[in-house]
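Amino acid chain
________________
===
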Amino acid sequence: MKKSYQTYFKFLITCGMASATLSCSNTRFLKEGQMLYTGAEVKIENDTLPKKEKKDLQSALQDKLTPKPNSSFLGLRPKLYFYNIAKEPKKEKGFNYWLKYKVGEKPVLLGDVDREFNKDIIVNYSENKGYFNARATYDTVAKNKKAKVIYTLKPGARYLISNVKFQKDSSLVNQEIQNLKDNTLLKQGNPFDLDVIKSERERIDNRLKERGFYYFHPDNLIVQVDSTVSKNHKVELNVKLKDNTPDLSTQQFSIDKVIVFPNYSIQDVKQGKYSIPMNTDSLQKYEHGDIYVIDPQNKFKPKIFDRALYFKKGDLYNRTNHNLTLNRLISLGVFKFVKNEFIVSDSLQHKFDTYYLLTPRELQSLRLEALGRTNSANYAGSEVNLNWTHRNFFRGAEQFKASVYGAFDFQIGGPENAKNIFRTGANAQLSIPRIVAPFRFNSSSAFVPRTNISVGYEFQNRTEDYSLNTFTGSFGYNWKENARKEHDLKIFDITYVSPANITDAYREISKNNDALARVVKPQLIFGPIYSYTYTNTMLQKPNTFYYKGTLDLAGNLTGLITGANVEKDKERKIFGVPFSQFAKIENDFRFYHKFNEKTSLATRAIAGVAYPYGNSEYIPFSRQFFSGGSNSVRAFRARTLGPGSFDPRTIKPGYYFDQSGDVKLELNAEYRANLYKFLNVALFADAGNVWLINEDSQRPGAKFSKEFLSEMAVGAGFGLRLDFSILILRLDLAMPLRVPYYERGERWTFDKINFGDSSWRKDNLILNIAIGYPF
């Protein structure tokens, strides 16, 4: 113990000496008279302010001071040190340029600090927050060629709002403003705050935009502040229209004509093909939508604009419908640019025409892609796709996509003989920008609902084992309530799996293993699938999350009609293949915490269960859960983990066959940091496993029980992520920390870690190569 304390003490001394050396090294590069600026401090002298209010004011003022000192880490300034030691480069490239100007950071000197400007900033900000009698001073403290500035603020008492008045006049716009005053942000008794006043003007403007006042602007409002009407540091606010408010801003406008240019281009405008405003006397309206569609080439069916446009003739203008229309036109996916203009057509009746200027994308495209990928089974690999897309297939903005592909999936590291996968296939998808159904579906969302139809075929070859022919088809709907909430309902989803090329070696192994035998049996799965997604990860917030829940119901109605019951020897078949009957639910929850612009924490929890019944004793292999791989528990090969504490090595020593389960639980955590531009690093830990619903005598320990926590696998590692904007290449190196199929009491593997042993590294270090983040 004594030796431990001595070591720790030496370490602290060494760190302190290194800190002092590096710190002094930075100042020795300064010229005569220069001083390194180490930052500023704000002191507030006021004994009457509450502690929290004083702290918030101090923090806000600190953020507004400029410039910021050189970045530091544990009291050191490594970036400044690199700048100082690097030679001045002769060219804007090379190692010296990279070290000095990319890695390094130019010194911030005391001479760069405008102390009078910062003092004025402190006073102005304080007054904007209601401290009308604020005064500030500053002092500079210098030592050993380093200097900091101390600003002292005497804010005085904060002024509170005693009364809020909305001045009346006879104008129509003022009548609308009077109707909005009950929800004002300016509350009696609250502190005076200029930011709240600005928000109140914007609130009124937003509400007026919903009532037809298209040309109104927040600057048309003024909030007068009177501090003489009351004593004890109170102010009275008077909200009124400015005297010089333009007449156009006070008028309430409605829609006259709606004119759509679905094939608009700047080149055509220059050639005089289009003119705005347009004389529509000789044009014919679209009969259902009461709109004009200028489409001489007849590229688009006018009906798509009837569904997308929220403005109709005679409607009062409002901003919500304005934005909804633009968003729906963009979400059609066929237009590259969407522009909207309003032109006054009748100034006496306060009407304007609305023009939609739509520039279409290339309607057809053929693209060859060679990319890395990660499939749903957590295998990583490469894939070549040839895609043909038509974005206006039936002239109604229908998107048709057809593709053929070839791929191989693999994983590097770990035990040998884990099989690679080779795949090839083709698929076709038709996405219709409306709900095709015998009922009427109305959506006020900014996103166009879609009907999706797809068919596909894939040939999968698992080397030295077997091949699978998979046929798929689906029909369903996708719609979004808003940017956060999305629904996907497949009314009918069918999968037919037909095995082929089963090797004698695999047949021999599967003779005494029912789980392996079921893999190469024909599978027929059909039924509805529903998924719901909620996310706010697009928001610039410190804490965001993502949730996706999926419900998969296969063969339920068919099983009920046919009376299927495999337990009573009433197995039903369709075309000689038993259909699957089960219920499956899966939940994927992710939480992200952003520490700053360069570091964050990402976590994920997955929980799922699949229950077979009726015509099925087991969940079909293609619908079971799997664990391990580049998007799962990364310390284990894809599909080799579980079920439960079953040891997959007992099937055949040296071989790792796919292991699946009916229950899945997985937890992941990852700390992410940016090192330099495109280079990111991560430290991660994963835990999880899969289990069976029913007992399997051939796989002892596979059933889910109350002992499930002791059967969780745990792995950890670090990764590099190369973010090239168009793609993110991920390299994750992981090792197991807990192996569930080891004997009880020996499952934690800390005592077995031996980086110096090549055989240990070969069996325990797993390199995952993938595209994109794991979650």
